[in-house]
Automatic annotation (TrEMBL):
Highest rank taxon of the organism: Bacteria
InterPro entries: Knr4/Smi1-like_sf
Protein name: SMI1/KNR4 family protein
Species this chain originates from: Amycolatopsis speibonae
Length: 161
């Protein structure tokens, strides 16, 4: 059995660093698993991962900041703003072919929808939360060209502490 127990998370510090609470299902996922790379394609950040490219406070916030710069420069090309703007996108993962996985920070935190987007602002708004999205994408029930080359069902998972 591989060792995939995650590092403990100080959620108060994480939320203070982000300036926001996070969805309960994401926090429960992080309590069970460390950072994940699924099928060598989809990366799920974890706030305590020692690898900066899989750390929510480093990678996720950097990708969110980069989106903010793009939105500022090319606002007419982007359907959404970037967090911390009201209703902005907050990155929690990515793909190896440069698509980003975001929360759409509208409404109560546990009702945040998922947005999959690329740098050209092709995007998919998934009408469900973090866990629902993972189930649908990894089962193959959600097939979107926005995620480029990903082919489900899930067949390989790598864990990173």
């Amino acid at each position: 059995m591989p060792d995939f127990e995650p590092n403990p998370v100080d959620w108060s510090s994480v939320e203070q660093g982000l300036g926001s609470k996070l969805p309960q299902d994401y926090m429960e996922f992080c309590a069970l698993y460390p950072a994940v790379v699924a099928d060598r394609f989809i990366r799920i950040d974890h706030p305590s991962c020692s690898n900066g490219r899989l750390n929510l406070l480093k990678d996720g916030m950097e990708r969110t900041r980069q989106l903010g710069e793009l939105v500022e420069e090319f606002s007419h090309h982007h359907a959404f703003g970037a967090f911390p703007s009201l209703g902005g996108l907050l990155c929690w993962g990515s793909s190896t072919s440069s698509e980003q996985l975001y929360w759409l920070t509208v409404g109560p935190v546990d009702d945040w929808k998922i947005v999959v987007g690329d740098r050209e602002d092709d995007h998919l708004v998934f009408d469900g939360g973090f866990t629902e999205f993972l189930v649908e994408i990894f089962s193959g029930r959600l097939n979107t060209p926005v995620l480029g080359d990903y082919v489900a069902p899930l067949s390989e998972v790598s864990f990173f502490k």
